[in-house]
Amino acid sequence: MEKICRPNLKRFVLYWLPLILYCLFIYIQSDYPSPEQIPSFPLVDKVLHFIAYGLMGILFYRAYQTLRIKDNIQLLMLLSVVSASLYGISDEIHQSFVPFRDAEVADIIADIIGAFSGVYLYRLMVVSRERESGGD
Asked: Does residue 104 register a pLDDT over 70?
């Protein structure tokens, strides 16, 4: 029984725990009132959303690769983007209830574009590495 559980625990720690912790981090960060600083350049918050949800899309992709759907690349990519995007939408809804914060459609758009870009670029990197290593 112990030998059976170890691979699952390792898979959880390496692939699912980073995703869970990152989602928790985003939730906690969203629960604080908005910072009172002026952006250093226009649309800095949209760039931060893009980067944050690009990373989240990658984390979803990595986690979903541990499931039976791992060989269906299109489904894997679609579910990763949709999952990160839905989390972004839920985060904006959450922020609408936090004092001094509000929900913005532009943030949701940045989240979705970021998730798509992150998953797509990650997939390109995976394919590139597979070609370099001879497809092993």
From this structure: yes
